[in-house]
Design goal:
By secondary structure, the protein is mostly helical. The protein has one domain. It is 61% helix and 0% strand. The longest helix is centred in the last third of the chain and has 28 residues.
């Protein structure tokens, strides 16, 4: 399901939003494991997909905040 962000004011402090380092490291581990040809379990695949979705949402919010601040 696509994420739709309304054209509402987005606080400019969202520019600082990013994945916490431990969460980013976990996502990177899962993606590296997959890249090495090691299959992810169903739970790991769901975890990776959720983390990618979260990272994309944070990036979208950050870009919109930057655009609004500029």
């Amino acid at each position: 399901m696509p994420i739709i962000i309304a054209d509402e004011q987005i606080p400019t402090d969202l520019v600082r939003f990013k994945l916490p380092s431990a969460v980013h490291a976990r996502l990177q581990f899962l993606l590296d494991q997959q890249d090495r040809g090691q299959p992810l379990s169903v739970a790991e695949r769901g975890e990776a997909e959720g983390l990618v979705d979260l990272a994309e949402l944070l990036t979208l919010l950050r870009l919109r905040a930057e655009r609004g601040a500029g």
